[in-house]
Amino acid sequence: MALDDDIRILSGVGIFADFTDEQLRLLAFGAEPARFAAGREIYREGAHADCAYVVALGTVVLYREHEGEAVAVSHIEAGGILSELALIAPTTRLTYAAAETDCQMIRLKRTLFRRILEEYPEAAIELHQRMTQDLYEFLKKIERVAPRFEE
């Protein structure tokens, strides 16, 4: 894919919503293309995570292990991101990911993402504010459903 295509795709991903054109260009320039044939593993649950993947073309299925079986929990299509937490902090993969169809992905390393946030502290501040708001909204949803689980 061309650099401009990668920039367009990245601009539609929520975590990069507040990035400027220049920041998106740097992110796209430092990204790595990755292709996965249908059925191929992208990563395993519990594996070390040092990068995220943005789906450019195709569909990825995410699985969680449950009682020794892989259970599909989500499908990620073009424009979706896998393992975005890996961009921010050392972590492990929470799911097993496999290409459901032939996929073209954009691989983003944590070191690249951090370098952009260091060069553009205003982007880091905006990202922090968005993540705080997302967490607040998530907690409000939990509070609404919590009474259903009380004895």
Automatic annotation (TrEMBL):
<dbReference type="InterPro" id="IPR014710">
    <property type="entry name" value="RmlC-like_jellyroll"/>
</dbReference>
<dbReference type="GO" id="GO:0003700">
    <property type="term" value="F:DNA-binding transcription factor activity"/>
</dbReference>
<dbReference type="InterPro" id="IPR000595">
    <property type="entry name" value="cNMP-bd_dom"/>
</dbReference>
<dbReference type="GO" id="GO:0005829">
    <property type="term" value="C:cytosol"/>
</dbReference>
<dbReference type="InterPro" id="IPR050397">
    <property type="entry name" value="Env_Response_Regulators"/>
</dbReference>
<protein>
    <submittedName>
        <fullName>Cyclic nucleotide-binding domain-containing protein</fullName>
    </submittedName>
</protein>
<dbReference type="InterPro" id="IPR018490">
    <property type="entry name" value="cNMP-bd_dom_sf"/>
</dbReference>
<dbReference type="Pfam" id="PF00027">
    <property type="entry name" value="cNMP_binding"/>
</dbReference>
<feature type="domain" description="Cyclic nucleotide-binding">
    <location>
        <begin position="15"/>
        <end position="134"/>
    </location>
</feature>
